[in-house]
């Protein structure tokens, strides 16, 4: 049997170390499916239920492994479905390759069924975006696509017409008319050197030596630099603030961190940003600039792998281009240890208070169930190396504050696109890459419902992922956002009764549990975590629990009150929760 182009395509991906492709077939990619069938000993195909989920799985796989994630969709609608997941990869800077089908070359441009110019459609999302017109372009375009995705930390896209997919591999049907020859390339890639220039490190050290009140802001680019971050923090007696994507940089119980930043961060981090005179940013492109210090008020150094992003958020005196770990390693011997630990201790005391406040909210006696209690139980019972994935919504706040990074725990969500729904597909993608790890998706009812068919994917692939649904029967995050704008909520709650998502699990042979009473939370979570297979715990939580910012501003409180006056529904129950939790802040 002669080798077809698709077989060579998949073979080349295997040469690059690709072991998994997430996707869904269609008449636009039957040739590529045949390539996957012929290469099934080297590359596993994971059949999903929605292409958007395939792109999220590839993105989750890439986030957790550092290896390129690959997804596959048919021409037209399949390719369109991939896009949201691909933008997630683009915005969070992880390497993902999308392969799509295209109409056969003889009919391109004739308006045939499903003809969508996917290469044009992907022009914005993809760093490398190429139609394959001739099998002779292989393997070069595959090498270029993979190399570009790694080098630019983004999306590469190859779209392949049907007839080319099944053409003989290596066929070169047309006369060569230019003095050109397809470059012969190899599946090799070397990352850019990560060590910054000595003079830049000297400047950072000088800036830090002058600082009296220093903070370190660590992001996803520093996830592999835990030890170095802690050493720098200890040497400078400076607290570490973490972006949400950088939550796993250092453990939450470390005396050197004030936890998260931004709306779902901690009050000590907010106060810290207002008080410091010097900021060292490491591996972060934190977009919520309102939560950074006032421009001009602080001296800033930023260690960043991409020169285009160094200095892109706040006036920066010393941009340093380099890998976070290597840069901090090289910086450490240049730092002057600070003997005065008073500033650090002040924030350690503030964190002690914050931790007590958070613990008080995790009250298992509250009925309806407090989301904070649910996460605290999960936090307590999950493994020390568990991986938690999460969605956008109030769940991100609960996870940010009540899921604690300890030991080898990891945490992933859609940081910059902040899309709903990737939590469960991420978990599936990661569980495929790491079969022995405990992988848990903590998601909202809204995000889960968007791609809930993927729980069936987990069942079919016998993946022991654990799904915990914080079911508030609402698009909770938006409800509170509307109130903070000063408007009563509108169109954000689903009609009662609460959906029973556990039934989806039990009806299909998985472990599913519906929890409605606080007393049942612990047993259900325990059972799910110890179950040898996919498990889903659907927990009805208090829909009136506000995810308040760590520090409520006067203006926010005023707008909140205005929404009440203008006719906010359920204000009695909301007020009860507020009074219980944070009314003292609102009064301030
Ligand atoms: C695809 C997409 N649609 C809409 C939004 C806006 N949005 C952000 S959070 C949110 C609510 C999410 O609801 P749910 O998953 O139930 O979580 P909850 O906030 O209730 O905890 C919405 C609608 C978004 N981020 N992404
Ligand atoms: Mg919800």
Give a brief outline of the structure.
The protein has 588 residues and is α/β, with parallel strands linked by helices. It contains 23 helices and 18 strands.
SSE map:
Layout: H1 5-15, E1 20-24, H2 30-38, E2 44-47, H3 51-65, E3 69-73, H4 77-91, E4 96-102, H5 118-121, E5 126-131, H6 140-152, E6 155-161, H7 162-165, H8 198-210, E7 214-218, H9 226-236, E8 240-242, E9 257-260, H10 267-275, E10 278-282, E11 299-304, E12 318-321, H11 324-331, H12 342-361, H13 371-381, E13 387-390, H14 394-402, E14 410-412, H15 423-433, E15 439-444, H16 445-450, H17 453-460, E16 466-471, H18 476-484, H19 502-506, E17 511-515, H20 521-530, E18 535-540, H21 554-565, H22 571-581, H23 583-587
This protein binds thiamine diphosphate (TPP) and magnesium ion.
Description:
The protein has 588 residues and is α/β, with parallel strands linked by helices. The protein is built from 23 helices and 18 strands. A 6-stranded parallel beta sheet has the order 2-1-3-4-6-5, sandwiched between helices. Strands 9-8-7-10-11-12 form a 6-stranded parallel beta sheet, with helices on both faces. A 6-stranded parallel beta sheet has the order 14-13-15-16-18-17, with helices on both faces. Strand 13 (387-390), helix 14 and strand 14 form a beta-alpha-beta unit. Helix 3 crosses helix 15 and helix 9 (226-236) runs parallel beside helix 11 (324-331). The longest helix has 20 residues, at 342-361. The radius of gyration is 25 Å and the shape is globular. The N and C termini lie far apart (77 Å). The model has no long low-confidence stretch (mean pLDDT 96). It binds thiamine diphosphate and magnesium ion (MG). Residues 391-395, 418-420, 444-447, 470, 472, 474-478 line the site of thiamine diphosphate.
């Amino acid at each position: 049997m002669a080798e077809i182009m698709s077989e060579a395509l998949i073979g080349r991906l295997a040469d690059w170390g690709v072991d998994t492709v997430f996707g869904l077939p269609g008449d636009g990619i039957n040739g590529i499916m045949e390539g996957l069938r012929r290469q099934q000993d080297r590359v596993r195909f994971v059949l999903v239920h929605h292409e958007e989920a395939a792109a999220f799985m590839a993105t989750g796989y890439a986030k957790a492994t550092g290896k390129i994630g690959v997804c596959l969709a048919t021409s037209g609608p399949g390719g369109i479905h991939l896009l949201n997941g691909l933008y997630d990869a683009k915005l969070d800077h992880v390497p993902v390759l999308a392969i799509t089908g295209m109409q056969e070359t003889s009919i391109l441009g004739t308006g045939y069924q499903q003809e969508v110019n996917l290469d044009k459609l992907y022009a914005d999302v993809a760093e490398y975006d190429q139609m394959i017109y001739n099998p002779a372009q292989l393997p070069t375009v595959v090498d270029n696509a993979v190399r570009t995705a790694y080098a630019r930390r983004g999306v590469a896209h190859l779209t392949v017409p049907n007839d080319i997919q099944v053409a003989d591999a290596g066929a070169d049907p047309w006369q060569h008319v230019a003095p050109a020859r397809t470059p012969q390339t190899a599946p090799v890639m070397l990352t850019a050197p990560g060590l910054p220039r000595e003079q830049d490190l000297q400047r950072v050290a000088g800036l830090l030596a002058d600082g009296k009140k220093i903070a370190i802001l660590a992001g996803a680019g520093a996830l592999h630099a835990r030890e170095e971050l802690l050493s720098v923090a200890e040497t400078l007696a400076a607290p570490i603030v973490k972006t949400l994507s950088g939550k796993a940089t250092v453990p939450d119980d470390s005396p050197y961190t004030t936890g998260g930043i931004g709306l779902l961060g901690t009050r000590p981090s907010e106060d810290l940003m207002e008080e410091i005179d010097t900021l060292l940013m490491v591996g972060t492109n934190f977009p919520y600039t309102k939560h950074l210090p006032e421009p001009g008020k602080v001296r800033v150094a930023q260690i960043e792998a991409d020169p285009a992003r160094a200095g892109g958020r706040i006036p920066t005196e010393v941009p340093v281009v380099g890998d976070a770990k290597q840069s901090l390693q090289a910086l450490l011997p240049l730092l002057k240890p600070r003997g005065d630990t008073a500033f650090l201790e002040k924030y350690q005391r503030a964190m002690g208070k914050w931790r007590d406040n958070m613990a008080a909210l995790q009250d298992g006696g509250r009925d309806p169930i407090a989301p904070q209690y649910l996460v605290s139980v999960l936090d307590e019972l999950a493994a020390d190396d568990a991986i938690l994935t999460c969605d956008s919504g109030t769940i991100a706040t609960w996870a940010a504050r009540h899921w604690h990074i300890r030991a080898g725990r990891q945490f992933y969500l859609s940081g910059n696109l902040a899309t709903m729904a990737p939590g469960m597909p991420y978990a599936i993608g990661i569980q495929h890459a790491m079969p022995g790890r405990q992988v848990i998706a903590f998601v909202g009812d809204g995000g889960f419902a968007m791609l809930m068919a993927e729980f069936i994917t987990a069942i079919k692939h016998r993946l022991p992922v654990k799904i915990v649904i914080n079911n508030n029967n609402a698009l909770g995050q938006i409800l509170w956002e509307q109130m903070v704008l000063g408007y009563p909520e509108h169109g954000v709650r689903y009609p009662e009764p609460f959906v029973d998502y556990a039934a989806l699990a039990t009806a299909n042979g998985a472990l599913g549990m519906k929890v409605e009473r606080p007393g049942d939370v612990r047993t259900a979570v325990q059972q799910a975590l110890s179950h040898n297979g996919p498990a889903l715990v659907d927990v009805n939580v208090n829909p009136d629990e506000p995810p308040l910012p760590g520090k409520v501003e006067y203006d926010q409180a005023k707008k909140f009150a205005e929404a009440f006056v203008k006719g906010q529904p359920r204000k009695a129950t909301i007020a009860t929760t507020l009074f219980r939790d944070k009314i003292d802040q609102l009064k301030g």
